[in-house]
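Before we proceed, please read the two lines closing this message. Let me know whether the structure tokens fit the sequence:

…
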Amino acid sequence: MAFITASWNPLGDAFYRSTDLYEMSWSLRDGLRDSLVAAAPYGGPIALLREPQRRSPSSRPQLEIYSASGGTVASFPWKSGPVVQLGWTVSDELLCIQEDGTVLIYDLFGSFKRHFSMGQEVVQSQVMEAKVFHSPYGTGIAIVTSSSRFTLATNIDDLKLRRLPEVPGLQGKPSCWVVLTQDRQTKVLLSNGPELFILDNTSCTVVCPPGLSPQDGNIVHMSVSFSYKYLALLTDSGHLWTALLLHPFNLEFTCLPRCRRPKSQQPSVVLMWDRLLLVVGVCNETIQYPIEDPCVLVGEMDGVRIISSSNQELLQEVPLVCQDIFKIASMAPGALLLEAHREYEKSSQKADEYLREIKEQSMLGEAVRQCVEAAGHEYDTNTQKSLMRAASFGKCFLTDFSPDQFVTTCRELRVLNAVRDSSVGLPLTHTQFKQLTLQVLIDRLVYRQFYPLAIEVCRYLKIPDYQGVSRVLKHWASCKVQQKDLTDDAIARAVCMKVGDSPGVSYSDIAAKAYECGRAELAIKLLDFEARSGEQVPLLLKMKRSQLALSKAVESGDTDLGECFTGRSQPLQTGFCKLQEQETLKDLYNQDDDHQELANYYVTASYREKRLEGRLSLLQSAVDEYNKAKNEFAVKTTEDEMRLLRFQRKLDDEKGAGLLGLSLQVTMETLLSLGLHKQAEQLYKDFRVPDKRYWWLKLKSLAEKEEWDELEKFSKSKKSPIGYLAFVEVCIKCNNKYEAKKYVSKVTPEQKVKAHLAVGDLEGAADAAIERRNEAEIGAVLSRCSASNSLVIERLNRARAAIAKK
């Protein structure tokens, strides 16, 4: 595969390559000259402002927003003040920093969102230079004014301005400066001639980098890496100094080792002049790339995007795994497997020789892993296919190889290839995709309004609906209701048809968005699709559609909603109090002498009371109010509840039974399971529990505890109110046929057949059925007989025939 390495350039032990991303689809007459350009990382959008210092009202500068492939997203004349810097937030919002310190924020489509100021003192002294940076807090802005003072905001969404101390001897803006952020701390590193200073909230400290002397000249350029781990300084004498920032806030440096290449990749520095782009490594070697037009460099976590007026490239160090596979004469397992697959496609016997060589080294699994990993790093789809086919070929000869990495990489590459297409314009590398995460990628597709693609990605990767398709549809619908060229009916039909009953999508949320956009009638139409009245009514009230809100509340059958929306009357107050103000509700019932509702209030309040004394006090108040309301049934029920609570507390104190708060039936079940039969019987008598219920509870409890002797005594204590078939069935359920047979003789004649069948006594069942001369019961017994029961079958058939004759 020599053609792959043709574009590689060596730099020490490493190789660098330039990958063509796009032929830019924009048409820039003057290229990128005399323009402010800002491109967001992770393949983000590009903002371009031509002649930003132009102040003529008759000829305003044009602010243009493009996708990474050069597709026009938005364009509008700039009508505000002179712009010093453009930048992008982590959520792809455009920041425009003006000379007077005002920061204007636009969305991706050029719609104004909001603005803020970097401080009153900035307005007077004017911004000389500004930088947009990303920190753990979010997106930040740093500025330097004409009075040589720095102001910092680490998070524009939670604006807190910090004015940094003065720099001794600094007049005007520094020759160069960068923002350093790490471990949730942010500081400014700047140069004034040959001197370096670091600014924090309280101090300005002089820094002396090792190996860089004043004789090397004034520092004119500095740059920090995407990860804030590396720093590069350039002096006016041409000296380039690089270092690893061990701790940037004490500014501890360590010079990078020369010509010692570990397994991890080493940093390099990219410098650009008018006609030359230079890559400088730590081994005193360089790579030169001639350039024809003015370019913009965009730092990424794994390379540099080079944007010109005609095309866009990605310059990066070739990943180690790709070097291992494609390097000339490489004997790495992945290289051998790729060659084996090529020979296999030619039907050559050499394929077997390469496979044998890999197997002899026991490296076939590693070879497959290398091919899969390398495919992720390749931008060309044909190279991806070659590597994945080679991995699939090698996988066939492995018995215990997990396919997870292979399948995941295949899926991720399909998604990446789709979003890299120039019509979408998201040139993400696999490394960037992993850092960005799938969820953020879907968010970016949705934000750019690529809804069909976002839905296809969600379905292809089988993302749960509430995280995937439903979220996309919700955003689509929120944008759809803002379309001014469509009628309300057309939008409502389109939303209903598309969204349907998708889980996690609330029509009330979509209707609220329509109302925010001034389309109240559309909001009402959308609310008709909302199944939950509780979501409809609040929005209708907010829209001041009280009658419609009341109608919806009445249709729902929810009496509280109906009372809440009956104007400014007493029912409205009562309904509101039921939902939110319990104490006010009690005062209203007292005011109206509504004893029944006041008693109900006390009962409800008793369930919220944790202390027994407080609960009993509330229940006693309820009894008093029920007496005033002449509700004798409620009085008796409430008094029984109080008696039960006292009984439960007494047993809890004596036995530690944990009964307090349980219902009467559950209390009896618990007592029986604990063997407290006397106390259970006391409850049975005191609360006049029906005989059938008590017998059932005790029967089940004794059987579950396998207290068969007690069960037999209980069955003989008096005639069973639930019959004796229940004893048979419960014993069988507890897998004790022997005990069940004891109760068969006590079963009534009508249930004898069923009892005999339950214990598996076919002859007894046959005798009972014949004796009762019941054809249905004879049929039931016959259905349970097998070929081995021929005598029983014969008897039953004779009996059936005799019944039929009569």
